[in-house]
Amino acid sequence: MATYLTPALAWRRMREGNERFVAGESSHPNQDASRRSSLVENQHPFAVIFGCSDSRLAAEIIFDLGLGDAFVVRTAGQVIDDAVLGSLEYSISVLGVPLIVVLGHDSCGAVSATKSAVDTGNMPVGFMRDLVERITPSVLTSMRNGEHEINDMVVEHVKQTSKRLVDSSRVISAAIEDGRAAVIGLSYSLAEGRANVVSGIGEV
């Protein structure tokens, strides 16, 4: 059963699926009627993907996954809030998922908007302001490190998001300490289709 995979084996399965997608050789597993029927009573995903909502970042497609394989949580700029943390804790404590994937991508609109707000001092209106405020620390850290490109800021934001998940959630940090789970940070290339590792917490 997928739930009993180690974090390392779960990541290997994700990586192999992404390699098939990059090569144009996706196998589209677990997408038929029998798989659908087998999942009516329960689910045993082997990974939880916390990614950006961008329409080009369709989680199951870029990792060549099917029904029941991944528990997916998405917000613009993969911004953390209480609902996100609750969803991730559910995946770890109730579903027993061994791997949390934090998925950012190049040319991210939310990170670009945050960089613009930092540069100009003009904050967006409405709830978009909340997104920008939550991404600002990552943008400022990137700038302090002499990295001013959007894609550098995306990588920094993935790293900070991964660390914040662990710092914020005792459920997640305890699972990592026990070796039951790990967090891996990825930056996805829209042109190439490849998800590159930028950080890791726990044994992967």
UniProtKB/TrEMBL annotation:
Residues binding Zn(2+): 52, 54, 105, 108
Cofactor note: Binds 1 zinc ion per subunit.
Keywords annotated in UniProt: Lyase, Metal-binding, Zinc
Needed co-factor(s): Zn(2+)
Gene3D superfamilies: Carbonic anhydrase
Xref: CDD domains: beta_CA_cladeC
Family in the record: Belongs to the beta-class carbonic anhydrase family.
Function: Catalyzes the reversible hydration of carbon dioxide to form bicarbonate.
Designated name of the protein: carbonic anhydrase
